[in-house]
Structures are given as structure tokens and as C-alpha cells.
Amino acid sequence: MLHCADITVLERQRARLKWQQDQLQQPQQQQELQQQQHQEQQQQQQQEVRYFSELSQLISQGYDEGGLMMGQQVKPDPAFENGWPDLGKIVAPAAGYGFGPGFEASYAISRTSSSPPAVVPEAVDVKGKVSVAALNEKVSAAVGRESFKKRKADKVQNTKVAVEENTKDKRMKGSAEEGDSSKITEQNNNNNNNNNNRSNSNNNNNKNKNNKETSADTSKASEVQKPDYIHVRARRGQATDSHSLAERVRREKISERMKYLQDLVPGCNKITGKAGMLDEIINYVQSLQRQVEFLSMKLAAVNPRLDFNVDNLFAKEAFPVCPSNFPTIGMSSEMTHPAAYLHQFNSLQQQAVSCSGLDLGIINPSEMGLRRTISAPVSAPETFIDSSCYPPSSNWDSDLQNFYNVASFPSQQFTGTLEASNLKMEM
Amino acid sequence: MRAPSSLKQEFLRKWILGLQICSSSAKSMSISERKKAIKLSADIAMASARNGRTSWSRALIASASKDDNHGKLFVQQILGSDCERLTKISTSIKRLRCKKILKKSSGTIIRRRMKRIPDKAVASSIAKQMVNKRTQILKSLVPGGVFMDEVSLIEETLDYILSLRAQIDVMRSLADATEMMMNC
Q1: How many helices and strands (H and E) does chain A possess?
Q2: What's the CA gap between A379 and A377, in Å, rounded?
Q3: Cβ–Cβ gap A300/B38 under 8 Å
Q4: Residue B143 in contact with residue B59, Cβ under 8 Å?
Q5: Are the C-beta atoms of B20 and A313 separated by less than 8 Å?
Q6: Which of B23, B165, B177 is the closest to A307 by Cβ?
Q7: Given this model, what pLDDT does residue A287 score?
Q8: Rounded to an integer, what distance in angstroms lies between the CA atom of residue B147 and that of residue B139?
Q9: Contact criterion met (CB below 8 Å) for A35 and A170
Q10: Is B141–A286 a contact, with Cβ atoms under 8 angstroms apart?
Q11: The IBH1-like N-terminal domain covers which part of the protein (chain B) (predicted)?
């Protein structure tokens, strides 16, 4: 991607020179003042942005002279696409797991909103949870030369889709405010995009773009614009009809989500193609499903009567499950009580650790004592406790392992390693 | 992200509800039947732990409630009061999407025949075919996947993978504990 970025950068530089020469007649002083102001602001923001330092270097190398103004722009998206793939990569891992709740919420929202058959756009409205919009604004600030507009506070995709007009005479770069607006009106005439609607309502929003974006700002911005369009500009050298733009938006969404999957599926870091990634994902899902089958078979084999009753549940004390053999159950209330769970877990851990070297005869009464305390809320008869098995010493290691595994409820990253350790154990 | 431990607790709770039905109902089932019952109850419990927020869970519940075996029982027991609401949602969504798919599939076949592929684009078309093939496979794997478009398919896959992991952890620990109990 880098080589084509260079080409476009060079072309842009040349074009900008040409354009600036053309623009000499216009009131330059005003433009320069405003440019300076904006540049200062932008520089401040550059320092503040920690994610996109690479990006800003790349961009500042490309653009030495002139400067675009930010904000007060009628026009939308940043005009280079070369930066955006980097942006995508940087954003996704950094903000990956922070997206979690917002992730699902926005997906739910996007699903419902994309049902009306719109050719170009779909509406996504994130209520500023992770303020990716804020990040994107910072990026735009870091870029500093482009005229940005953030239409919908969608996660990454809007500002990722950035573009430039294809015409030779008019260039986006280095445009002053007036020049920009005039160009925009011309562009609007040329384009058949949905851009036409934007110019009016954007003036309100663009003033926000200069400042450091907070989630409040983005939510304000997203509240202001009601229409359900994602505004996309056609890239240089590419078709500008709405179909291909929509196609590109969709493709970028897909690639963004594939990145999340890359984090989730182990061993996917080195694979870069879509087909390869899908392969890995398919293999992983198949292996997970096979594991489920295997485990259910194992449970069926071990348990001929399918009664998962008190004895079992006593043994799995690390679960916050009270002996739920009693059919109805205060089970749910007990189980979801985190304090109780933690208490059980702590006591079990202490027991497990302390018992590792001791003799069985000493251990079991203490174990029984613990069991009694755990089962205190439910009046478990002592017969259950007596009938519970005294695990032979050979099983203590597996017992410990089981408690640690079960009780720790590993997060997803550790599941793989735990599974591996379990496998070793079972071998 | 949802706290994985709360998901597991939720899943376990619902699964035990389902399993209690099993134990009370059938006295002598073959091992494969038992396995199916266990797996089904686990799947339904996992799907219901999502509370109908994801598409795959709704699809799973919908297919289970149509099932003749213990599916309906499980669904009723595990979902409880939400049962009717969720099954209605799932079935209605499925019907809409079925129609979309029929239309889509007929259109693409015709277009492919009429189009001529230049030599330069052969590689890209091959790549596209590979991707399409794998997408089809993934759609067959994820419950309810055939009704989704690519973008939502990937989201659903993400969620499904997480749920499967949680399910496996819980089942494994239960299996180990049971085995330990039985062996002593």
C-alpha cells in the first residue's frame, strides 16, 4: 500500500502547487492566518494523540507546504486513504477489548438499522461508549491538513473511508475555507453521492472538530445529524458511483471485524489473507464444537443415570452452586452472589494448598468441616457429606488442578493454555 | 466484554435446570441418546444465556423448539417465562431471511454465466471463489448462519466462539468433577 501512497502523495504535492498558484489571487492573508491558527491547534492535538504518532509522521513527511484547514469545513472525510489502513490496524488492537459492550450494542443497532434496503449507507449510532469518534477526530487533527467531517459516530469506518476528487482542476489539499466551500459546491454538482445533504448541517459540526474531542462532543455531533447516511468520498482513481462506495464501506467493515477475530482465534497473527483467516476460523469453530461433543459424550458415559445431584455438586465446590438437588432452590440467589462465591473459592484454595502434603485422615475431617460451612445455608443432611468420597492420594494433584482451573474461571486468553494443561493432565 | 465468569455461571445454572429434566424423565436411555440430551441442553442453556441478543442464539432456540425430542421441554424449562417471546422472535426473523436468500441465490447464478472474465482478473476471481467457499462453510457451522450477510456473520462468529469457549470450560470441569466422584 505504501508505494501507491507515495505516488498519490507526489501527485498531490504537484497538484497542490498548481492549485496554490492558481489561488494566488484570492485573499491569501486571511487564509494564512486561519491556517496558522488551525495548524497550531492541530499541533497541540498531535502531541496529545498517542495512538497515531506513526501516522502523523508519515503524513507530515508527505505534506510540507501549504496546509489545509480543518474545521469550518464543509467537506467531509480526510483525503488520504494511505493513512487509513494503518489507522485501522492501530485502532483495532488498541481499542479492541474496550469495545466490548459498545461492540455488541452497536452491532445490535447496526443490524436493526441496516434492514431498510439502502444502497449506499447504513446507520450506526454509537452513543460514544468508546468514543472511537473521538479517536478519529484526533487522527484527523494529527493529519492536520485535511478537511474532516465526521458524519456518524460509527466505530472506525467513517473516517476510514476517505477520499479525494478525481478531477484535475480542483484539489482538496491546501484549500482555504472559501476555496473549499466553492469547490464543495462544485463537487456537489459533479458528484452523485449523498454529499449534497451535508453541506448545510455540517457547519455546525465542524466547529467541534478543531478542539479536542470528548465523547460529549461526539455525542452532540451525532445527535445533531439525524439522517441515516454514512458519507463517503470516492478515492482518487476510483469510481465514484454509489455502488462501489458502498462496496468499499462494506469491505472495510468486514476487514475490521476480521481483525477482532484475529485476536480471538489463536494462531492467526501471521495470516493475512481473508481466505486463510476464514480457514483458521472454521477450523477453530469446528474444533470447539468437537470438544463440546466429546465432553458431552464423556458426561454421558460417566454418568449412567444422568443424575447430576448433590454428590456431584459437592465435589465441584468451586462452582458457586449450592447443593441443588433440592428441586427448586434458592440456588439462583446463592449462585449469583459473588461474595459467597469468592468465599467458597478462598476457602477451597486454602484447603487445597494446605492439604497438599498432609495425610488423608487428617484432611478429610477438615474438608468435611468446610463442606458443612458451605452448605450451611441449605440444610444439607450429613448423610451426603458422609457419602462423599475421600479421594485417594493419587488424585490430589488432579484435584488441585481441577480446583484451580475451575475456580479461576480464566479469561479467554488463558483458555487455550488451560486446555493444554488439562490435556496433559488427562494424558 | 461480558465477564466470562458471569456467563459461565449463567450457563451452568440454566444447564442444570435442563439436566434435571433429563434425569427425571428417562430412566433408560442409550448412551448416544444421553449424549444428545446433554449436548442439547447445554446448547440451549448457552443460547439462552445470551437472552436473545445475538442472532445465532435465537436461531438455536428456534431450531430446538421445533425439535420433537426433548428440545421443546428444554426450551420451556430453561427459558421459563421468556420462552414464548423468544421463540416468536426467532421464528419470525427466520422466515423473513429465508426469502431474501432465495432471491439472492437465483440472481447470482445468472449473473455469473453471462459475465466474461478477462485474464487479468482470473487470480482475483479465484481468490473470491475461495473466500466464498469458506464463507459458505462458516455459514453452515454457525447456527443460523445461512441467513446472515457477511458482516453480521463475522460478528456472530465472534460471539459464538466466546460462548463455545465458556461452554467448554464449564462442561469440562463438570465432567472432571463427575469423573472424580465416580472413580472413588
Answers
A1: 19, 0
A2: 6
A3: yes
A4: yes
A5: no
A6: B23
A7: 93
A8: 8
A9: no
A10: yes
A11: 5-67
